[in-house]
Amino acid sequence: xNKHIDLNNLKNEGLENVSNQERRDFFKMGLAITGVFAGxxxxxxxxxxxxxxxxxxxxKYPYKPHYSMVMQQDxxxxxxxxxxxxxxxxxxxxxxxxxxxxxxxxxxxxAIGGKREFIPVLCNQCNLPQCVRVCPTKATYKDKSNGIVMxxxxxxxxxxxxQLGCPYNARYFDETRHAVDKCNFCxxxxxxxxxxxxxxxxxxxxxxxxxxxxxxxxxxxxKIVHQxxxxxxxxxxxxxTRPNVFYTKG
Length: 250
Prior knowledge:
This protein is of the alpha+beta class.
């Protein structure tokens, strides 16, 4: 299983076309707001939220619950407990390149206070998922009740079109089932059974991964995304997929 990816030498991982400007923006690590969040730009969402009508709020977060995850990226210590918990909980085949969640690693030899930065990644559960749009058999679909991007393994023909369409390299081909699979926020293994956290969030000892409901104004995820003290950003905003995974500094 590929545990680490050096972003300086990343090849064929869904990020090879990242522009230099995008890399600079992202690796400011919170010094600037670079992203877009589920309902629009982060600045416009913050400035207009208190004045928004209930109908406007429902349009931004149409699912009940509207599952999301916030990564407090600078807290990640690369202990890999999240990865192991995901493999065990979701029966992910232990083969090179197979993962539902992993940790990207960037070497920063000139950085003050440390030489490495860790970025947890998983399926971004996009509001406008490219994988759903390109799937010829509708094996990939967005759940109408909670917005999670799901896989119907029985419909998958293994064409890998969804892998090519995903901007986040968040899918793998399961040779044991001859189908593509991915993170579904542990819906079938935990959340639908009454658990409040995904396996990766539950296993994290550093409070990196925060799972919650963006449609609930009292939820911790909602409060972090809408606060103004700390920058919040997303990966690859230019893809236009409007992801439900956000990044900030703890």
